Amino acid sequence: MKFNIIEEQIRNVAQKFAEKELAPIAEKIDKEAKYPEETFKKMVKCGFTGIGIPVEYGGSGGDDILKCIVIEELAKKCAATAGILSIHAIFGQAILKFGTEEQKKKYLPLVSNGGKHGAFALTEPNAGSDAGSAKTRAIKDGDEYVINGTKCFITGGANADFVLVFALTNPSKCLKGMSAIIVPKGTPGFSIGKIEDKMGIRASETSELIFDNCRVSKLNLIGEEGKGFKIAMMMLDGARIGVAAQALGIAEGAIDISIKYMKERIQFGKPISALQGLQWYLAEMGTKTECAKWMVYRAASLKKQDLPYGKEAAMAKLNASENARFVTNLALQIHGGYGYMKDYPLERMLRDAKITEIYEGTSEIHKVVIARAMLG
Which of 264, 312, 360, 364 is catalytic? Predict the structure, then answer.
């Protein structure tokens, strides 16, 4: 796998950023479940939040390969921060692909390198994998939509300046009546509900969003009425590549820590790196992770070329997420009792890895997506 000089430069910048800005705070923000607002501002200054958005709209340019590189490197040190960047990018990508020229000029400079937060609100209490069961409604009243309903498990929802909400504008048509609407922070009738106390990626805030006769202009509609579900599914295809890159970074970070520990830990008069059983663990971890890396960048490359990539994105996320859990589990085993303690980062990384098998589509849903694509 060969990266060009720009991609290697971006990787170097992301590595240094992760080492300097994330490694020192990862344990603290996990323990306190504290959203790293200052770190987000630093990512804005580095141009990370603008990757994938054209320069003419205030972004940093670049493509999904660059985005994967940054997310991968950040995840090696702090999966929560990598997840924040990955999910934040969905809002801008939706505006870029489906928004009007006026909407692009209005929102993209703000959510790329303007420091504003974007969120993507699809999931509901009774509509997770089954998005077709969504109940949130947005009924037109003159020049406005009146939104009523509740969204849950929304990454960055409480901190978002703009939320892309998927709601039924024509409830009688179910999925064909779903639309995508931008709801700005502070809009009357829009409030934040429960902030979730999560097992992993604890610094990446996840919240409930409540809409009670929330009125927004009809100009906030993204794309056409009734095309919301299609927009959501297309955005999830791209988001899966980002989550796969996050999972890849977690696995690579766990391998790096394990190699260092194996060389330093002395048992029976010699470093444990001399033990064949642990060498075999490391070999398996490395081989599976290298396979995951090829799949992640293969999917990103297809998307960059505007080629079909849905199946490959699902495969990359399925494989990378399951590998992240596998690798972090073995890495913790290599560390023995120390790995189980919070003094070492492995127990956090194991907790963080698990969510990559769940959000942006569970592993089971991805298997359905893959199988359907294979069967035609």
Answer: 360
